[in-house]
Sequence to fold (552 residues):
Amino acid sequence: MKRHLISAADLTRDDALLVLDTAEEMARVADRPIKKLPTLRGRTVVNLFFEDSTRTRISFEAAAKRLSADVINFSAKGSSVSKGESLKDTALTLEAMGADAVVVRHHASGAPQRLATSGWINASVVNAGDGTHEHPTQALLDAFTMRRHLSGVGRDLAGRRVTIVGDILHSRVARSNVLLLNTLGAEVTLVAPPTLLPIGVEQWPCQVGYDLDAVLAKSDAVMMLRVQRERMNAAFFPTEREYSRRYGLDGGRMAVLPEHAIVMHPGPMNRGMEITAEVADSPRCTAVEQVANGVSTRMAVLYLLLGGSEPALATARAEEPRPEEPRADDARPDDVPTEAARTEESK
Amino acid sequence: MVDDRSTTAQAAPAPPARPVLEAPDIARVLTRIAHEIVERAKGADDVVLLGIPTRGVFLARRLADKLAEITGRTTQVGSLDITMYRDDLRLHPPRALARTEIPGDGVDGRLVVLVDDVLFSGRTIRAALDALGDIGRPRAVQLAVLVDRGHRELPIRADYVGKNLPTSLRETVRVLLTEEDGRDSVLLGHSRREPQDRTAAAADQ
Fold:
């Protein structure tokens, strides 16, 4: 990972822990009377949303504002995109406006990657969900939530068993979570009807099962995914009732979980479909907490990408950490080849 | 930030760093500062000690213990991370954050004593004052440092100074504390940097 966050796979274990530890400190800002830090003053963050989203956009907006960045919201509806403007022209417009970071959600998988590597813009690109590909900040906030409940601040998730249930096929959340949780040492099991598993899932670093009841008793966290009706243009399962009976989480199934286990949901929830109201409203369900953690996590990501002369999350970790040389000026990140981030030294 | 300083010290070639304060000196100096705080704060009832990470936090805790010995009451002690308020953030990659721990009753209306190991350019303290302003409104803010090495770049001075150490910009001051480094000592070394490189030198502070 250089100066973009496109995929959860871009993050090394050290990167991921740095984001989570930073998020932990960011979370404390929310408890203060003045919920604002001056860190990103004068930087511009553009929320570029080609697809509807409340939670993620508001979360990114709150995160950027708490760091004192200027936020420009751009949604495809009511913009020139609805008049047929291409991604490239939109990007060039943003570049001309001097965006330092672009948070992009797009219905096409790979759009953020294209934006980051095309040379259209110099800004850092943060993937806020692209098609059925990835949603890395969601995975980070899920890992943050799990860590708080299951292993404690400062640790990774080694040995924790996480079960992800539901529409894996259409879920960018599942893909990012599998990659990140694997990096953090957790054992992930996917449970879904065979029709809702993507091709090639056997190559993912996780187990795959079809029987929810078989894995519940040894799960530390169960993540229920929304059945994405808007993407269900084919018959993936016979009836909603059958899906709900086989793969939905109700009070009875929750009782089978170990005492410390948590129930997670990235939202929005379909109550009565993949999760019953009883479970959704129980204290073990972290859905609301996940939203709060989302702001802290995204603050951490924005700080680490934009807070200095160059991002703290770097692939160049293999390089020898060199004693700091005086930097001539605050060169733009793109002028500077990736250096071993000094964060390692300064922690 | 503190570790930058240690990197500098490690990078320094011969002559080796010379100790200017040893463990008994540091203990004596902290005892004196504690007495001065009690004297000036007329009993130190409303004092909140806030250490600046990393080593300022350990010094603040030691001062709190000394104050408790003198006054017989526990003193509020915490830490104040200033990373997000630094003025040189854009000169370096983002730094990992340290812990900010404000004691239960907050700082409103209290006498806050900021505690740091070395006072140099004064930029850390400026950032600390900004950070403090976002947390509450103290009755007054004072500053206690173990070593004042001079070369201020801002109109800031310490209220309690362990040792005034006149230095040149070529020199490095490195504070070692048992909690972090295994032993107590203040070392004066030589930087291989050119003295005119004020930006990097200030970053050490």
